[in-house]
């Protein structure tokens, strides 16, 4: 059974993005497209942390509620959250109410603000500085890696700067989402469309 499915529109996608309209739209328009602004990277880092142990579809369906609850993932605003805000978030049924992940998001917002003083620039520039020299070229989902030397290095570097919930697997998923690596399957209509990597 092929991991690439051709849809009714004639476009080839991986099996995970072939049926659910929400996942299909996300795959077609967002996943793997370059995100280079601080707020955008902070949002994706936060949502990848919330996704840990859950399906991405769950997070994607809750993304509008997450954005409302976390003030659009503005790092400056989230960095100022106090116990009242944490209690509000833990009472919000629209998001994933996990105390450790909520606290990690606040911690990471503060670390994001502090990172602006780093020579490599803000969170976006810092994360992009771990772009590898090459990208995977998987033909099947089984060939898509879950970590890389760069995601391990990024994880360690972010932890040194006070970030939490930034393990190597989560950071590799972040790098995929941001377009830092291209793990679109060969044969997919999205392969090589980010402008970062050739097909």
From TrEMBL:
<protein>
    <submittedName>
        <fullName>DNA-3-methyladenine glycosylase I</fullName>
    </submittedName>
</protein>
<keyword id="KW-0479">Metal-binding</keyword>
<dbReference type="InterPro" id="IPR011257">
    <property type="entry name" value="DNA_glycosylase"/>
</dbReference>
<keyword id="KW-0862">Zinc</keyword>
<feature type="binding site">
    <location>
        <position position="184"/>
    </location>
    <ligand>
        <name>Zn(2+)</name>
    </ligand>
</feature>
<dbReference type="GO" id="GO:0008725">
    <property type="term" value="F:DNA-3-methyladenine glycosylase activity"/>
</dbReference>
<dbReference type="GO" id="GO:0006284">
    <property type="term" value="P:base-excision repair"/>
</dbReference>
<dbReference type="InterPro" id="IPR052891">
    <property type="entry name" value="DNA-3mA_glycosylase"/>
</dbReference>
<dbReference type="Pfam" id="PF03352">
    <property type="entry name" value="Adenine_glyco"/>
</dbReference>
<dbReference type="GO" id="GO:0046872">
    <property type="term" value="F:metal ion binding"/>
</dbReference>
<dbReference type="InterPro" id="IPR005019">
    <property type="entry name" value="Adenine_glyco"/>
</dbReference>
